[in-house]
Design a protein that fits this description.
The chain has about 140 residues and is α+β, with helices and mostly antiparallel strands. It has three helices and eight strands; from the N terminus they run E-E-E-E-E-H-E-H-H-E-E.
Amino acid sequence: MANLFAGVREAGVRPAAGGSTEVYVVLPGGGSGPKAKGRIRAGDDAAAVKWGSVLFAFSGPRRRAVVAELLRAREDGYRWVSQEALLEIAADCGGRDDDGCRRGARLRDLFRDHPAWGTLIVPGPSDHGPSGCYGIAEPPAAG
C-alpha cells in the first residue's frame, strides 16, 4: 500500500467525541507522482480517505461504516444514499456511542465538527430527487 502521508504539507490532530482523536491532513496539490489528482482513494475500512489532495481520517466504527457505504455506492454508480439507510448501517456497527452519535440521530450529528462534513460528505440537491440523501463530493480540481 502506498504511503498516504508522504509529502504532508499540513496536519492537525484534535480531540473527538468519545475520547478519540481525529486527524486532518493536507497534501501538496499539483505536480506529478501518486497524488491521484481528481480521484478518491480509501482503505478497505474507510478509516482514511484521500480526496484530491486532502486526507480525511475517520474514528469510530459508525463513521467509517457510513463513509465506506458512500464510497461503495459511488463506485457502483449511485450518486446518493438516503440518510435513513446510512443511519441503519451506522446502528448495525455496535451500540457504543464512541463517535458522538446516539441511535436515531441525524447524519450531521454523527459527523458533528468533522472537517469532512459539507466537504467530502454532501447532501444531495433537493431539485434532483428526494431530500435527505447524501453522497461523496467531487474532489476539487488541482491547481
